[in-house]
Amino acid sequence: MKGTRKPSAFVNDIPLKYKFLFIYLLCVLVPILSINALFYVQISRNVDARERENLEISVDRVVYDLMQIVNECVAISNTVAADRAYNEIMDSTYPDNESYYDAYNSVLRDKMWQYNNLHSYIYWMGVYTTNPTIQNGGSYFILSDNDKKSEWYSKITSGSDKVLLTSYQGTNPLNPPQQEVFVSLIRKLDNFTGQPYRKYLRIDLRLNNVQELFKKEHDYLQFKLLDEKNRVVLESDHSYYSMDKNVLLNTDTDDSQSSKQIVRTLGNAGYTKGWRLIGTPEGRVVNHEMSRALRLSLIFAGLTIIIPTLLIIVIIRSYNLRVRLLYRHMKLVKYEQFESIDMYEGKDEIGGLIRSFNLMTEKIRNLINDVYKLEIQKKDLELEQVRAELNYLESQVDPHFLFNTLNAILVICKKYKYEEVTDVIRNLALIMRRLLSWKDDLITVGEEISFIEMYLQIEKFRFQSRFTYDIDIDPSVLNFRIPKMSVQALVENSCKHGLQSVKGARKIHVSASMNDASLIIVVTDNGKGIGNEKLEWIKSHLQSDQDSGQNIGLRNVYRRLMMYYDSRAGFTIESTEYEQTSITIQIPIDLALDPKVEESHV
C-alpha cells in the first residue's frame, strides 16, 4: 500500500545527480563566491585605510619638519630682537660712513652671517631700517619706497603681529633686478622702548631645502604648500625658486582630487595662520596593494573552488556509481535473481548497504538451500538447553547436602550445649540458605548488612578478642538497592588480605549514608594496607579488560557496579601502608531507588 503523497515529495522524484548538482551550486559554489567577494571588499577597505593612515603619517612628518625650520627661524628672530646691544647699534646715528663701517665690521656683519653659516635652510637674512645713516649692502638696507610697496611690508605693517610668515614675489636684495618667489619670516625689531627707527628682520627660507622634505615622500605623495591666500607657493614637481618668475603665484583651484587629498595646517601659531600643506597620493603604492589584494583573493577563490569541486566530483562519482549498481541488483531480486555485487564496496553508508544486500542475498540462498539443516540445528539447540538445565539442577545437589549436614551438626551442638560453636554454625547455615534462596541480583542495603553481620560474627569467633567490628548504617538508606554480596566481598577481602597478617587488634568499620546526590558505603580496616605501587596497579587492573587472575573479588564488585549503574557509580580505594585501607562505593540516589534497574539486569 502506497503512502499519501506529500507536497514536498517532489524532491524524491528528482534524480540523484541533479540533487548533487543543486547542492554543489547552492551550498558550495555560490557561498564560496560570495564569501570571496566579501573577503576582497574587506581586504580592499583595510588596504585603503592602512595606506591612508600611512600617507597621513607622511604628511604629518613633512609638516613637522617644515615647522621645525619655521620655529627655528622664529627663535633666531627672537634672539636678534632681544639683543639690546645690537639694537642700539642699529639705532645709532653715524656721522659718516667710516663710523658706520667700523660698527659694521666689528658687530653687524658677523651678526647676520653667523646664522647663514649655521643654518643651511636660510637663503638670506637681513634687516630693513628707517635709519638713514645705514649704508645699503650685505644684510642691511634702508627702507626704500619700493620696499614699502612690497607685499611683505604691507602685511607686517597692516597687522598687529610681531612675527609673520609670508610668501610673495619680490626683488632679490642681492640681485635687485631679479624677481623671485620668496617664503620669508618677517619680524618687527621693537622689543625696547624709545627706539628712534623702525626695523624689520627678514629671513628668507631656502625653498630647495623645503623641497627636499617633499622629495623624501615623493614615492607616495605630491605636495603643495599654500599660503594664507590659498596661493601655491611650492610644489613637489618643480621649484619657483629655480625659475625667473614674472607673474603672481598660482591659486590652487584643483578640486578633482579633493576627496583623496590630505590637508594639514602649519600649526596653531599666529604667524602660520592660513598656511596649509596638501598631500595628494601618487596612487602607485595603493594600486600596487590593491592589485596584490586582488591576486590574493583570486588565488584564494581559485583554491576554495577547485579543491571542493574536485572533492565533490570524486565523492559524487563514488556514490552515484555504487547506488546505480545497487539499484540494478535490487531490481533483479524482483525476478528472484539473488546475485551478489562483486566490487569493493567501501566502508561508508553505501558500502554498508551493499554489504547488507550481499549478506541478504546470501542468506536468502542459504535459507532456500538449507531449510532442513536449520530444522535439525533447532532441535539440537533445544537438546542443549535441556542438558544445561539438568546440569544446573545437579550443581545444586552439593550445596543442599552441605546445608543439611550443617543442620545435623547444629542439632548435636544444641543437644550438648556447645553455645559458641552453635552460633557459628547457625550463621553459616543462614549464609548458605541465603545464598541458595537469593535469585535477584539487586537486594536492599538492609539485606546486605544483615548478611555481612553474620559473616563478621564468624570472623569474630575465629579471632576472638583480637577482632572487633563496627557497623554504622543510616536508617534512611536501608531500602536502597545494591548488587548482592558487593559490600560482603569487600569485607571478606579486608579480613582475608588486610587483617590476617596483623598481630595486634583487628578492626573493621562498615558505614552507609547518603548526601544530596549519592548513596555512600565505606569499608575500612586497620590491616597491613597496600603499597603505592601495588595500589596503582590494582586501580589500573580494575578498569582493564584483561583478567590476570588476581584481586578477583575487587574486580568483580567494580564490574558489577559499572554494569548495573551505567558507569555512573564511584569506586575508590585509599590506603596507608601498615595503617589503614578504605574502600568507598558511591551510587547515584536516582539509580539506587529505581526498581527498574534491578529488572533490566535480571
Average of pLDDT? 77
Poorly predicted regions: 241-249, 383-398, 400-405, 596-602
Radius of gyration (CA) equals: 55 Å
Shape: elongated
Give the CA-CA distance, first to last residue: 41 Å
Approximate helicity band: 40-55%
Largest sheet data = 5 strands, mixed
Widest sheet: strand order?
2-1-5-4-3
Q: Number of DSSP helices?
A: 17
Residue share in β-strands: 15-25%
Total strand count, please?
A: 16
Content-based structural category: alpha+beta
Description:
The chain has 602 residues and is α+β, with helices and mostly antiparallel strands. It is built from 17 helices and 16 strands. It has helices at residues 16-82, 84-90, 97-118, 145-149, 151-158, 207-215, 284-334, 349-369, 371-395, 397-415, 419-437, 445-463, 486-499, 532-543, 552-564, 589-593, 595-601, and strands at 122-129, 140-142, 163-172, 175-188, 199-205, 221-226, 232-235, 262-265, 276-281, 442-444, 467-473, 481-483, 506-514, 518-525, 570-576, 580-588. The strands form four sheets. A five-stranded mixed beta sheet has the order 2-1-5-4-3, sandwiched between helices. A five-stranded mixed beta sheet has the order 11-13-14-16-15. A four-stranded antiparallel beta sheet has the order 7-6-9-8. Strand 3 (163-172) and strand 4 (175-188) form a beta hairpin. Helix 10 (397-415) runs antiparallel to helix 11 (419-437), helix 11 (419-437) runs antiparallel to helix 12 (445-463) and helix 13 (486-499) packs antiparallel against helix 15. The chain is elongated, with a radius of gyration of 55 Å.
